[in-house]
């Protein structure tokens, strides 16, 4: 009873008590964080409750995408910044994690070089580039997972928002940014593995990445990261700062005339979103086992927008639902209908834009509102008859 009262009077407690859908989402994620690893590690393989390892990895990948969609919804749904380059922040976080995992291979690589990764030995590199220094340390690498996307977002946002670039022009510039990074990382002389990227990872913090226990821990960390990111985003959009963001989204010029430094608000939320995307990339790489320049592809950033649009823009939990639903459909249909999957994805986006402007969450909300209206109109009629 005392713990319940403490929770209700805490800032997070008040925040979640006012967000019913968010409570359900967090409850599902926390339950999955516990039950999925237990069903994989404890249940026998022949049991109905057994969760195969490949399903654990697949669910972990979906949660990384959910975190990425949450990051985009924070700036698009609440501030009106449609970024078509968020895949760049995701990939940079993934490369930071990949560089750490490559440094952990050491002499176990194909060429047995304790300092240089295999691709550098193959390309006749004689010494480690300066920007690889420090990535043998886990905590330094995790710091760079957040710092590198944050610096890129800060520099890009500072230049773009101060110049008052908005709308479709900003979207095109963000897509140009991620395409430029794609071309740069494809070059072998950049020192990031060229078109093959970084792969053949062995372990993390001394634990084998092929172990079921390690994969379950990574899944649990992914679920926990989505929960924490959701609470952070909900705290931002529910505060006075969040109301200013919505005002910027709906009437940027009027908000600026009221005396608000619009570019500062947009820059802050853009950097926070980039950090969340980088964390998603860092969690994604050890579970998938590879990171290459293809993650910078503009089509990947466009897919993120589709997840948010289908789930429900400006709801946060809708972005999580959209990311998981669309990627599950992608996994199924790429196996059942590999030739037409991209056409199906495009059609789904067009249908959601024309007929479901508020996404899946909007449809559910409209159905509940209509049912409430019917109940409200039927109650007086029953009272009059009685």
Short description:
With 386 residues, the protein is mainly alpha-helical. The protein is 72% helix and 2% strand.
Can you walk through the features of this model?
With 386 residues, the protein is an all-alpha fold. The protein folds into two domains: 2-355, ABC transporter involved in vitamin B12 uptake, BtuC (Orthogonal Bundle); 362-386. Helix content is 72%, strand content 2%. The protein has 16 helices and four strands. It has helices spanning 2-9, 11-17, 20-41, 53-79, 86-103, 118-122, 138-162, 167-185, 212-238, 240-250, 252-257, 262-288, 298-311, 317-336, 341-355, 359-385; strands at residues 198-199, 203-204, 207-208, 290-291. The strands form two sheets. A two-stranded antiparallel sheet has the order 1-4. Strands 2-3 form a two-stranded antiparallel sheet. Strand 2 and strand 3 (207-208) form a beta hairpin. The protein starts with a helix and ends with a helix. The model has no long low-confidence stretch (mean pLDDT 89).
Q: In terms of topology, how is this protein built?
A:
Blueprint: H1 2-9, H2 11-17, H3 20-41, H4 53-79, H5 86-103, H6 118-122, H7 138-162, H8 167-185, E1 198-199, E2 203-204, E3 207-208, H9 212-238, H10 240-250, H11 252-257, H12 262-288, E4 290-291, H13 298-311, H14 317-336, H15 341-355, H16 359-385
Antiparallel strand pairs: 1-4, 2-3
Helix pairs in contact: 1-2, 3-9, 4-9, 4-10, 4-12, 4-13, 4-14, 5-7, 5-12, 7-12, 9-10, 9-12, 13-14, 13-16
